[in-house]
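Quick one, tokens below:
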């Protein structure tokens, strides 16, 4: 394969080169394709050499969406450049400047809000919500679940009450999925669900690959604002800490790093700062 200088090849060619390989192996193909579609109007006709701080900022401005979304999209662009460099399609890969991370959303649902959401949801969305609230997994890990053992997709073991979020031949990624022992209430309810389709989350007998549109519609009907499928993960972990789950148990059960749990969720635990507050009670005089 001929290697090109950054000023002699377009970013569109780099994205296509990346997509041809990654679309065959990535777990969420639709998300990758959506990201590439978002990147293309701005970047496709530009030369790789045009990537700099100014063009990266210009992309953020024209996208006019959340910093987290832009970071994800620009991260894909960066990955495509690195892949082109590693496969010798490029002789040099410029630096992609990502927007700042911003502050993570501290939005979680109360039990009353979850009840409202469930009441406003179609049956397949209800099932998605119940699995998400009980396992704290991301939406793709849930929508890919099958009723039977699978090599390339997560599956449910209804004999042992275990959800495997990885296929038997899949390797774990940095966005860990792992497995969980189902809480008894979820296990009992899943036994009543229709298991005739291939996937757990199905609508009219067909797998539901993207839940976002139906979920947004349900949230709107329920009168809930600033709620996304990821809010369910945040809710699950927050509730767990409120009920006294330890960091060690949460790290394993939610397949989430200790650092993320400490930084984002630990303050919700009943023991958070209890010892420090007790010390300050002895120190301060009001």
């Amino acid at each position: 394969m001929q290697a090109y200088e950054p000023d002699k090849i377009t970013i569109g060619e780099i994205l296509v080169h990346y997509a041809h390989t990654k679309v065959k192996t990535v777990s969420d193909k639709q998300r990758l394709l959506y990201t590439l579609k978002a990147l293309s109007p701005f970047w496709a006709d530009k030369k790789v050499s045009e990537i700099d701080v100014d063009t990266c900022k210009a992309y953020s401005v024209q996208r006019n969406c959340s910093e987290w979304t832009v970071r994800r999209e620009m991260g894909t662009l960066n990955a495509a450049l690195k892949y082109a460099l590693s496969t010798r399609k490029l002789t040099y890969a410029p630096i992609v400047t990502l927007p700042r991370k911003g502050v993570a959303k501290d939005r979680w649902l109360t039990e009353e809000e979850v009840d409202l959401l469930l009441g406003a949801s179609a049956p397949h969305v209800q099932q998605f919500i119940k699995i998400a609230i009980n396992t704290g997994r991301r939406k793709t890990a849930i929508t890919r679940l099958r009723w039977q053992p699978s090599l390339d997709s997560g599956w449910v073991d209804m004999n042992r009450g275990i959800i495997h979020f990885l296929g038997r031949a899949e390797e774990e990624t940095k966005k860990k999925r792992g497995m969980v022992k189902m809480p008894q209430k979820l296990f009992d309810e899943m036994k009543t669900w229709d298991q005739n389709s291939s996937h757990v989350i199905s609508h009219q007998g067909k797998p539901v690959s993207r839940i976002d549109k139906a979920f947004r519609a349900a949230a709107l009907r329920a009168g809930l604002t600033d709620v996304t499928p990821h809010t369910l993960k945040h809710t699950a972990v927050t509730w767990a800490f409120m009920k006294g789950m330890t960091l060690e148990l949460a790290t394993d059960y939610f397949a989430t790093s200790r650092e993320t749990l400490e930084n984002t969720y630990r303050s919700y635990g009943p023991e958070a700062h209890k010892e420090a507050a007790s010390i300050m009670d002895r120190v301060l005089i009001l």
